[in-house]
């Protein structure tokens, strides 16, 4: 299999198809992840308005497509300030999006009397949120994941409402859990682990030095999943498309993904168990949240 989306619109269509397939199979907690910006721009470190606005546009596009399939979609922003800003910048798009509303994680709380000092507040959104059956959470930081959890857990028990974590870059946010001033790792063990990736495309770039010209070989790939298909390790070809070189029912960890790419490139030339192989792979080939399988209450995020 190869994958080469020609536009962000095509990726959004693929993501919505995957989400719809997951919903039809009875899944209600879903994750969508793909680069909201070209891969040469570091969205997470910059936390820039460029990333926020691009991701908001993509979420609105997805919401419109889901609404056309009969869903009542509520896009959920981190707070009232982000909500007011989004309603101001994307006013026309929101008004033209039938069946789509915009709110924020704190919309059920009492109004902030100081909101007027910081650019005002957006329109009331609590009632619209209560009427929705599909929620798309965007642009939350690691600390704000606690509010995402609170928002979702306030939903009525046995509800058929669908929750979608949209381009939150959860792999990066998970890495901050447990650090001082950040939420505890239990947020992964008890909450984030419940979300099934419906559409996932994460590109990565690597290089390896070799003793002959060109001395440095650069290669790229992506971890890819489109529900209900398997997890796939994709190697980027010269034409820009991604070609599947390995697949599995369960998610590949970081080290497994890199090893599959290295082998496919013919760069795994060290003897098995040798010192050179150890030095190439490194001491640690996976993250703590990939390793802590036994501590997870659910394993949906791996499937």
Automatic annotation (TrEMBL):
This is DUF1995 domain-containing protein. It comes from Chlamydomonas reinhardtii. Pfam families: DUF1995. The lineage of its organism: Eukaryota, Viridiplantae, Chlorophyta, core chlorophytes, Chlorophyceae. InterPro entries: DUF1995 (IPR018962), LPA3 (IPR044687). Residues 5-258 form the DUF1995 domain.
